[in-house]
Design goal:
The protein is of the alpha/beta class and 674 residues long. The protein contains 24 helices and 19 strands. The strands form five sheets. The chain has a six-stranded parallel beta sheet with strand order 6-11-10-7-9-8, with helices on both faces. It has a six-stranded mixed beta sheet with strand order 16-13-12-17-18-19, sandwiched between helices. A three-stranded antiparallel beta sheet has the order 2-3-4.
Length: 674
Amino acid sequence: FGDGFYGSPYRPCVGLDHPEGFNLIFRLWQKRDDVQKTGRKQIAQTLMSSQEVRKLQQSFPNFSGDILKRELNKMVDAVQCFPKGRLPNLRDSEKEYEVVNEPESGKKSICYIDPASRVPDPSISYGYVTAFTYLHCSDQGLLTMDDVRRHVKLQPICGTLSYSEIPRFYTFCLGMTGTLDCLTSVQNSLLKDYHFKQRTFLPSTFDKKRLNEAQTQEHAETSVVHGVYAEYFEEILGDITRELKLGRAILIVFADTSKLTRFSAAIHKQSVDWPEYTTPLELTDKLSNDARTSVVMQAIRHHKITLITRAYGRGTDFVCRDQGLVKNGGVHVIITFLPEDDSENKQIEGRTCRMDDPGSARKILFAEDLEVLDASQNGFMSSEFKDWDTYLLDCRSKHEALRYTSMKERKDESMFKHQQTIEACKAVKASNWKLAAELYYKASEVPPSVITVEICFVMDCTGSMSQCIAACQEKVIAIADTIAEHIGRDNRIRMAFIAYRDYVDASEPLKYDSPGKRDVCHFTEDIGQLRKFVSAQKASGGGDGPEDICGGLCEASALDWEGENRHLFLIADAPCHGSKYHSMQDNFPGGDPMDLVPEIQFEHLMDSQKVSCNFLQITDSTDQMMTIINTECKRRVGQEVSVISLKDGGTALARELEEAVTSSVLQDLKMHFC
């Protein structure tokens, strides 16, 4: 029912077991730094005229030049993820692999972790990224060249098939699920479309306890917290404290790693006031297999708190072997997000009340996180619904209908190439090689997409920053024009601007210098409109030395990032709150009053949201802050915030700002448009 099946195409590829295919890939690996110097197109052209390509064409006369050119471009794109002397720049799923011994041969190979099941799956490959990962592991001494040669091959794509059509190739289709009784109307209509006619329900053999049997209504009902994160944290902390004092085990489920990390940082600052309290365990994708197994085994014990991401709320077997815990009421689950459907909700709640054990579950939601469903306090108050649960389910149902409509549109778009691929297979059976090659090539073409470049300015707009505001207002149109000339006018440039200031004093941490608090101009393609927004900003406020950098980054993370090329520029002349980041007078020496941590915020932006982050530095007072941030970011995600000096300032500030932004963005875009 998800995007990965119904809405996605499958592009099968074949591994050409030919020595010149390996030689071609190895040659590019050795010269990968040349891509930066000479450009993507030039490298691909050079490889196309190489002796390796000539020998491949002699061995495979039906292997058209067009197919080879496309493969070379894909190889060049992939090798750029492996800069010499630095950590590979890979997606999360591409980072999760182990070098293992193959069961039968004992030889070594790379085995990826399945993102869904969280178990190793030797069948998973990420194309040429995997090929270059083998070479990277060889350079690290983890694999021999014999290991590499067995797995690194040319991998031409052979058409496009729609995953959604797979069941139609079979006479009988059978399915098994633990959540057949809570499918949505849209999901049931899909089952009907695939002609599933019979349903069988097998009841549990255990004497199942009713969820929340021992809980009061107040402690079982969904809570939606409005206001600031500190209030949301306090609500969860109160729930933890109550259940912890009863001697229970607590699982807290988060939508993603960044939300878990933010909560973890907050609870380390303000822990539960209870003698039996211990630091919470954490279960995320970033742990090794052995570490994950260890956390699961420790989690279900009395007085234990475990923070987990949603992936571990489905299928992870948290077994209760502690009879004392059973007597205390079993496991208590706190869900901090609205599950995407009833199926996920049932799975997560199923981490407690297992077999014949008691248990409870409760949702504690942050109103800000519900905005993606167009859910709000005003919407609830004006609706016909009497409680938050039914109101949110209605919002989710509408959102789901739109999602499935989008999935069906993508599925329909892939059907033409699906049919071309079927015809290509028929041509192969008829030995019509020329037609087969032509159809396979056309069916596997990916149409050029419109490139979207996004630039977000996060600027300190306190009293000392008037010159910077004027410089940004003066140059945003020039910056957009320069980038547009480089990438072509058919592509999109979206800009956003966030103005932050500061809190008044420590006695009133929620009172802000400016009546509008942080001012945000969301992403827009109307650069003239953004320029007017910047012009309207007044440099004001700023009592102590540090400013609300964390608040600005929080707003940036909440923007609707959607482009392929994402860039953030933080412009500041003062550090964030927290005495560890500076040596100046600070009304909040313990750190951000909302418990935000800048290094965690940058980590989330760079690693989860794939944003290229830059800091335009105006004074030396931010040196200590950036050292701490970059040390921690490099340790945790292998990336750093690029620091660009604007210290010369003065009348040249506007020009310096324009050059810093355009050169940074164009450097990232060079591989696409050179």
